[in-house]
Specification:
Radius of gyration: 16 Å
CATH architecture: Up-down Bundle
Number of helices: 7
Largest sheet: none
Distance between the termini: 14 Å
Structural class: mainly alpha
Helix content: over 70%
CATH topology: Growth Hormone, Chain: A
Shape: globular
CATH superfamily: MFS general substrate transporter like domains
Strand content: under 5%
């Protein structure tokens, strides 16, 4: 496995470990800050709309810039907005964090995929992409269990600190790509 592919996979695995901890617990958090079913729906939709629109726009931009830097900036911004959950006390704050997370992922996703596609072993495309798509599902499954356990025994506050810290570690690890 090429060193750059290894960095991409391990870095994304760390990111998914942090990101996946909230998973289905998002609804419970949103209700705790006063969100009703419509606000929860709109907060998640805001994330998806921002992510979808900006992924298209930034994906085009990525073809003309340094994909490695753009990806690392996306990871870093994601960690920042994950820590933003700590400041959420009203549904409007949640909308802002969700929009920021959409922007961050729009920076990171198309560039990660482009880089992975560029450097993966072309002779093992199926197994290479199987690893790229299967590993996150396994990691998120584990992280959801960890997230639920943390919330059950401690708090959302601790969960967001752990999630953000894992994403900072993932960003630092992914930044190794800038030197390869």
């Amino acid at each position: 496995m090429k060193p750059i592919v290894k960095v991409l996979l391990i870095g994304s695995g760390l990111w998914y470990l942090g990101e996946g901890m909230l998973g289905p617990l998002f609804t419970i958090f949103a209700q705790k800050i006063g969100g009703d079913i419509l606000e929860i729906s709109w907060a998640w939709a805001t994330y998806l709309f921002v992510l979808g629109i900006l992924t298209i726009i930034l994906g085009k931009y990525a073809d003309r810039c340094d994909k490695r830097r753009m990806m690392v900036y996306g990871y870093g911004l994601n960690a920042l907005f994950t820590f933003g959950y700590l400041l959420v006390s009203k549904p409007i704050h949640l909308f802002i964090v969700q929009a920021g997370l959409g922007l961050a992922l729009a920076l990171a996703n198309p560039t990660w995929s482009a880089l992975y596609s560029q450097y993966q072993d072309k002779k093992k495309g199926g197994s290479s992409w199987g690893l790229a798509h299967g590993m996150p599902e396994i990691v998120v499954g584990i992280s959801i269990i960890l997230g639920g356990t943390i919330i059950h025994y401690f708090s959302f506050h601790l969960l967001f600190l752990i999630m953000g810290t894992l994403q900072v570690i993932a960003t630092i690890y992914q930044a190794k790509i800038l030197k390869i």
